[in-house]
Amino acid sequence: DSITTCLSQPVHYAICKLGFEKKDTYDINNILSGNGEVCWQAVSDHVCYLESGQSVDYIKSIRSLGPVCESVNSYFKSLTKEQFVIQYASWFHWTNCTEVFLEVFDVLQSTQATEVALGLMKLTSCLERALGDVYLLKGSDCPFLLRDLLASEQLADVFGQAVMNVLRVFIGSPHGLNLRNVLWHGFASPQEIPAKYCAMLLFLTAGLGQLLQTYLLQTKGVLVHRPYVIFISLEELDAFPGNEILSIAEELVKLSSFVLKIMLPFWIAALTAFKQSRYADSVILLLPQLEAGLRLLFTTTNKCPNRLLTAESSALYTTFDEMLAKHLDNEEVNQLPVVLEEPAMESDFLWDFLNHQEGPRIRDRLSHGEINLETFPREIANQIVGFAITILCRFSDEDVFSLKEHMLIKPLMNCASCYQSRFHPISRLKKQVLECMKSIHLWPELATVPEEQVQKIKGLEENAETNTLILMVSEIISQLQYYMPQNCCSSDDPINSVLTERLLVELSDTRICTLYSPRPVLEAVVVLRKISAQCHQVSQQVIAGAGLRYAQWLNKSLRSRQRHNYGRMLNSIKFLSPVLRLILLLITLELVSVHSVSKKNPFDYQQYLKFLKSVLQYTENLVTYTSPDKNKWDETMELTRKALIKIKKISDRKLMLMHLPT
């Protein structure tokens, strides 16, 4: 309750006061031509420069542009929606988000500060994406940071340096108003963002559209919009139940110590947006508030209260990235995960949804304009809202015990306590292994020529080497029994009793701490994932090849040499299935003990990595030999024999992870 702002004194002054110091009334006609076009020269004349003449003087520029922004805001308020659409809608087409900018106009007509802040967040996100598309007219790799994008030569070539300097006063520079960052990182409360700055950015975006149209006509260029990110496999994101708990969520928001009271309107607006099926709006409002609440915990537990405020231009903000890190920038241990009641859950969820490269990376993609706001998935919004409610609950006073025991809250909290990372490399490896095993289990169902017909192929005798390889697999399985659940191995049929999908699922369910995995662990996991991917490709090639050859056999289109090759393929399948399943079992057993990597001495670790890379080499060669254009089945047999000898030797020498104490 005592916190009245999360803006440091200089930042608060720049945003809330500096642009109001000049009391002049500015004539809108100075920057607006008769046909409604922006007079960029008149606007850029208000940008001031330091004595060197090169660098923008942001303080003087904000002060000078204040009355201009006020005039633009008043001008927009004087227009009807129809007038605005007729005069400006076409100038927003270059953004590929015309509707978003028309919505911002509607917001400016209201008096709700939360809606203005939300409109400004959406505007900056869409504007950044559109500017990136323009950048690609002249450059190749678009900068990730808005700051670097606005400072690029490519945009200056298209719009002019003076125009880019105007934009940098409002967004993209830590020395300017930096409106995008203070909002998206949860520093600004609703009342601290003047509506006139939102109006000015709307005005400038239309002006950029006018300049771009002229540029494209002169250069005969075509602006191509990059496709939006499309989320697939949304079921993987399903951690929390539905939204029935929204009925009590608003009460929780008002009671939880996690919520800064100055930010309460954002929370209420986020929950309201969800109820209204405005899922992108809900998440855009929630993510900065989760960051603000966690920053409060972070600065309290690490005894650095000054970090709660926006940093100056010379220092970094305290953002999700730092709050989720293992160590602080001074190398001391971050205390935030220690004090969280369920540290793995909170951190794992946030890493999954925000940081892991194979996860949805919601905050990055929303704030940089990579997601179509109109089709934002309800499933993702549901998870963010569910997570937010669990963290509100954790940091509520005991007075709300009855609320925590509510029949709708308890299942949600149970889901939270059971949460395991889905997008950490270790979690992805588990998924890869199980998908590969499912593929290999399809082999027995493949339509193939009966065995007796294969044996009739002239010159294709039964190969004793196949049985030898299968026996070697059985011997290795016997060595591994100690590291597997009891009674899973039948002495009559060790291969088919052990190398099963059921066992891999059981082993994969073992909870593995993925948070702050040491570098050696991640290095090993990279190699294990490559091995698994190669095994899966072999399986897919076998399935495709067997199907094709069987069809050709039936219609008698196989030549003599092809019939021999088909027979060798069917012989090879007999040993390849147990060998690939053995490799998947080894990967899974390694995963269960994966954190023992860091306990290996340097020599053993290097030997271990060398062994993994040799297995990878074997699987890569398998992919080549089993490909449709190679079909080297005899060579596959010899390759496999050498690989099994190496696996058996390594296992004997106890260099594998599962032989180490966990």
Automatic annotation (TrEMBL):
Pfam family, one: DUF4209
Entry protein name: EMARD protein
InterPro entries named among the record's database cross-references: DUF4209, ERMARD
Organism from which the protein derives: Loxia leucoptera
Domain DUF4209 as annotated: residue spans: 127-207
Coiled coil, from the record: none
